[in-house]
């Protein structure tokens, strides 16, 4: 009678072990498993960081727009630097960097 119980116990232990392995594999490698969960969580974090950076950039651009609308000196500074504008009686000089002359 002990042999039946040990064989039965070994069989049940084997079945439980197979079920446990199957559940672990299912938990990790499923379409919605833990690996996918952590990948998506990481992706959400990077997207949230990008959103914060973009909000900061938008704020600085809004501040620049506001200063350009309200300050003629700032408007003149941007016109001279970005668009290479000058007044009628001024001469403009352009200096090349050393890196540009080596090419």
List keywords for this structure.
single chain; 103 residues; mainly alpha; 4 helices; 80% helix; rod-shaped
Describe it for me?
This protein has 103 residues and is mostly helical. Helices cover 80% and strands 0% of the residues. The chain is built from four helices and no strands. The longest helix is centred in the middle third of the chain and has 37 residues. The chain is rod-shaped.
Topology of helices and strands:
Blueprint: H1 2-29, H2 34-70, H3 72-83, H4 98-102
Q: Could you name the ranges where pLDDT drops below 50 across 5 or more consecutive residues? A: none
Order of helix and strand elements from N to C terminus? HHHH
Structural category is: mainly alpha
Number of DSSP E strands = 0
Mean pLDDT: 85
Instruction: Compute the separation of the termini in Å.
Output: 92 Å
Strand content: under 5%
Helical percent range? Answer: over 70%
Quaternary structure state of the chains depicted = single chain
* Gross morphology: rod-shaped
In short:
80% of the residues lie in helices and 0% in strands. It is mainly alpha-helical and 103 residues long.
